[in-house]
Amino acid sequence: MSDKDSVNKQPARTDAFHPVDSPFGKLIIVSDGDAITCIKHEDKIISIDEHRSDELTSKAAAELKEYFSGKRRHFDLPLRPQGTTFQRSVWKALSEIPYGETRSYKQIAQAVGNPKACRAVGLANNKNPIWILIPCHRVIGSNGELTGYGGGLDMKKNLLESEKVNNEERNN
Questions:
Q1: What is the CATH code for 85-171?
Q2: Can you tell me the mean pLDDT for 125-148?
Q3: CB 132 within 8 A of CB 67
Q4: What CATH number should be reported for the domain whose range is 12-68?
Q5: Catalytic residue at 136?
Q6: Which residues on adjacent β-strands are paired with residue 41?
Q7: One of 61, 136, 139, 155 is an active-site residue; which one?
C-alpha cells in the first residue's frame, strides 16, 4: 500500500446495537456512531455477535421508552436513513407529520412535489429503515383505511390509537 492509500483510507466503523423492549416485542436500534441508521425487530436480525451500545443508541432507547409510555411526542436524535434522493424526501415529509395526526399517500406525494407519485410514496414508506422515529405509521390510504406497515397492521393501529389517546389526554 502506498503512502497515499494509507492517508485516504478511513478506519472501519463499527455499528452500535441497542435492544429496547416495546409493546410489540424487542426492537434493535442501530447507530453508526453519529446517527441512528436503522430500527429492526429483533427476530428479523440474522445475527448480532455481541451487544455493542453507544451513547446514541442508549439515548434512542430511552426516548422510545418515553414514546411508548406516552411521555414523548418528538424525538431529539440525529437520523441517517440510507435511501434514494426520492426516498429521503418522502422520509423528510413523514417526519413533518405531527404527533397524533395522519396523512394520505397522496398528501405526501403532493408534499414532495410529485402529486402522481402515490405508489412511489408507498414504496418509499415501506423502505423506511427508521420506522417510529420517522413516523411512516402516520400514513394511511386516501379513504382513511390503514394500509401496509412493516411491523404489521396491528402495530400501526396501536401506534396511531396510542398517539390519538395521548393527544386527547393532553388537550383535556
A1: 1.10.10.10
A2: 93
A3: yes
A4: 3.30.160
A5: yes
A6: 27
A7: 136
